[in-house]
């Protein structure tokens, strides 16, 4: 009889995760009455965002999967399409994210087969919220982006039960940085190009400041016709391109300033204006 | 961080709740409604732990509506408050207690207006005025000083505005706007949102 040796991973603390310690203010006010204890602190290391505008929904995310100090995967996919008009971004532990994406896809498909119509985003959010309720301490956050007949919608579902519908949602460790950019540039009447540029910039800024977000940016655009995916873009070069653009701008401004000063000094001499 | 307030008059109840839905340090939503309509003349204001509020409040809401469907008439505010308290108390010593603080406000044909204060340990008290949250520490004494049982509606709204000004002045967090509703014998009336911006 052969003896099957099972490797007990008791001391394996490097759990592949995409979470981050979110700073909790006043966390002591709510006494945790749940008996579950986290084996160790997991973090939400990611930046994902979704927002609506006049021509649909944009969902964007970075692609870094981190595990404490190690980048486990620089090219993970954080945005998963559920069906042709629904896309979900998740943040939290990588395994939990994959699991809930698949469960949600399965439940939505079952509903569609049973009732011969698609579940609305409110229904999908409620369904996910109810399914996540027994796993309150799991700490997964989802952004559901939907662009269907009832118009573009984006909804935030958190495993602690919070469910919000809004216009701009961002989750993860890089979300404060992304919010700052989104709040500044968002307008309902944006064109598709402007919206894509805004989402890209928001993720880029977040990846710059946040250590747990980075590598590439994924972008999905969902309209009434379905979702379209933009090519994955590496943000490594973007930082240097931006620095180059800023340097050029400063040079131009310097030239203009010198020209203006030259004008003021050379009073009356019309021809000196046109040189240089 | 969340704030609820209720003031009872001789024939109305005025209630207000802040509009912020927050997740750790981020304000995720600025126009979140924390009031749940239990019936034509009963409102449940619910704050507390993130998922528990909506779950518990919707559970109570559906049960109150079920009572109406089964029996043909609505629960009175006192009955609804005691029903809520019983449910909260039952869950308290279970494995999944609900950590929610509630204000239940309603108008009864026979008993008149009623404001019920309930906390997460399911302690129920009928009170002329009540508040929940950190903001309550700052505003209860204002309510004490200026409250009279025969307030008119305008005076009640002024009293509410006084409380919100104090919050704006001394409370460390920014609560930019509040939903205000009034319940009287004609039902629930939405009043204009009170924005108390930073001065």
Automatic annotation (TrEMBL), chain A:
Reactions catalysed, as given in the entry: Cleavage of peptide bonds with very broad specificity
InterPro entries to which the protein is assigned, alphabetical: Ntn_hydrolases_N, Pept_T1A_subB, Proteasome_bsu_CS, Proteasome_sua/b, Proteasome_suB-type
SUPFAM superfamilies for the chain: N-terminal nucleophile aminohydrolases (Ntn hydrolases)
Role, per record: Component of the proteasome, a multicatalytic proteinase complex which is characterized by its ability to cleave peptides with Arg, Phe, Tyr, Leu, and Glu adjacent to the leaving group at neutral or slightly basic pH. The proteasome has an ATP-dependent proteolytic activity.
Species this protein is from: Sinocyclocheilus rhinocerous
Region (Disordered): 242-276
Coiled coil: none
Keywords annotated in UniProt: Cytoplasm, Hydrolase, Nucleus, Protease, Proteasome, Threonine protease
Keyword Hydrolase attributed: yes
Record has Glycosyltransferase as a keyword: no
Gene Ontology BP term (one): proteolysis involved in protein catabolic process
Primary site of residence: cytoplasm
Protein name (record): Proteasome subunit beta
Any GO CC annotation of this UniProt entry: proteasome core complex
Single Gene Ontology MF annotation: threonine-type endopeptidase activity
Active site residues per record: 46
Subcellular location: Cytoplasm; Nucleus
Family classification: Belongs to the peptidase T1B family.
Biased composition (Basic and acidic residues): 251-263
Quaternary data: Component of the proteasome complex.
Organism placement in taxonomy: Eukaryota, Metazoa, Chordata, Craniata, Vertebrata
UniProtKB/TrEMBL annotation, chain B:
SUPFAM superfamilies reported for this sequence: N-terminal nucleophile aminohydrolases (Ntn hydrolases)
KW Oxidoreductase (keyword) present: no
One of the protein's GO biological processes: proteasomal protein catabolic process
Predominant location: cytoplasm
Domain of life: Eukaryota
Ranges in coiled-coil conformation: none
InterPro entries tied to this protein: Ntn_hydrolases_N, Proteasome_beta2, Proteasome_bsu_CS, Proteasome_sua/b, Proteasome_suB-type
Keywords of this entry: Cytoplasm, Nucleus, Proteasome
Annotated TM spans: none
Cellular component annotations (GO), alphabetically ordered: cytoplasm; nucleus; proteasome core complex
Compartmental location: Cytoplasm; Nucleus
Signal sequence coordinates: none
Function: Non-catalytic component of the 20S core proteasome complex involved in the proteolytic degradation of most intracellular proteins. This complex plays numerous essential roles within the cell by associating with different regulatory particles. Associated with two 19S regulatory particles, forms the 26S proteasome and thus participates in the ATP-dependent degradation of ubiquitinated proteins. Component of the proteasome, a multicatalytic proteinase complex which is characterized by its ability to cleave peptides with Arg, Phe, Tyr, Leu, and Glu adjacent to the leaving group at neutral or slightly basic pH. The proteasome has an ATP-dependent proteolytic activity.
Oligomeric form and interacting partners: The 26S proteasome consists of a 20S proteasome core and two 19S regulatory subunits. The 20S proteasome core is a barrel-shaped complex made of 28 subunits that are arranged in four stacked rings. The two outer rings are each formed by seven alpha subunits, and the two inner rings are formed by seven beta subunits. The proteolytic activity is exerted by three beta-subunits PSMB5, PSMB6 and PSMB7. Component of the proteasome complex.
Family the entry assigns: Belongs to the peptidase T1B family.
Protein name stated in the entry: Proteasome subunit beta
Taxonomic source organism: Sinocyclocheilus rhinocerous
């Amino acid at each position: 009889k052969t003896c099957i040796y099972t490797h007990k991973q008791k001391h394996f603390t490097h759990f592949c995760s995409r979470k981050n310690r979110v700073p909790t203010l006043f966390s002591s006010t709510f006494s945790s009455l749940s008996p579950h204890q986290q084996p160790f602190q997991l973090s939400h290391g990611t930046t994902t965002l979704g927002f609506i505008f006049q021509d649909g929904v944009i969902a964007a995310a970075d692609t870094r999967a981190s595990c404490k100090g190690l980048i486990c995967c620089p090219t993970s996919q954080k945005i998963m399409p559920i069906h042709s008009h629904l896309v979900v971004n998740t943040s939290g532990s990588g395994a939990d994210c994959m699991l809930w994406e698949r469960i949600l896809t399965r439940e939505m498909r079952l509903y569609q087969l049973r009732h011969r119509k698609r579940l609305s985003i409110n229904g999908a959010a409620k369904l996910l919220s109810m399914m996540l309720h027994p796993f309150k301490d799991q700490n997964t956050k989802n952004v559901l982006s939907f662009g269907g007949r009832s118009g573009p919608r984006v909804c935030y579902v958190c495993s602690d039960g919070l469910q919000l519908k809004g216009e701009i949602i961002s989750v993860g460790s890089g979300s404060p940085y992304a919010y700052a950019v989104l709040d500044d540039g968002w307008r309902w009447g944006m064109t598709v190009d402007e919206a894509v540029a805004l989402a890209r910039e928001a993720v880029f800024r977040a990846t710059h400041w946040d250590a747990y977000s980075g590598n590439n940016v994924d972008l999905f655009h969902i309209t009434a016709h379905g979702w379209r995916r933009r090519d994955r873009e590496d943000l490594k070069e973007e930082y240097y391109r931006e620095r180059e653009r800023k340097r050029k701008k400063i040079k131009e401004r310097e030239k203009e300033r010198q020209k203006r000063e030259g004008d003021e000094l050379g009073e009356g001499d019309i021809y000196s204006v046109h040189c240089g | 961080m969340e704030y609820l307030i209720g003031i009872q008059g001789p024939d109305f109840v005025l209630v207000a709740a802040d509009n912020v839905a927050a997740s750790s340090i981020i304000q995720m939503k600025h126009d979140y409604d924390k009031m749940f309509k239990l019936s034509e003349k009963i409102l449940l204001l619910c704050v507390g732990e993130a998922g528990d509020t909506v779950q518990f409040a919707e559970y109570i809401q559906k049960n109150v509506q079920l009572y109406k469907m089964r029996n043909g008439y609505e629960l009175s505010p006192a009955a609804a408050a005691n029903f809520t308290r019983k449910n909260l108390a039952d869950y308290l010593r279970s494995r999944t207690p609900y950590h929610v603080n509630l204000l239940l406000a309603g108008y009864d044909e026979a008993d008149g207006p009623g404001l019920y204060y309930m906390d997460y340990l399911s302690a129920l008290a009928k009170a002329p005025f009540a508040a929940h949250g950190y903001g309550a520490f700052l505003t209860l004494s204002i309510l004490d000083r200026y409250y009279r049982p025969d307030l008119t509606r305008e005076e009640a709204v002024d009293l509410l505005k006084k409380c919100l000004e104090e919050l704006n002045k001394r409370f460390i967090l920014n609560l930019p706007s509040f939903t205000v509703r009034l319940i009287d014998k004609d039902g629930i009336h939405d009043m204009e949102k009170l924005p108390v911006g930073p001065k």
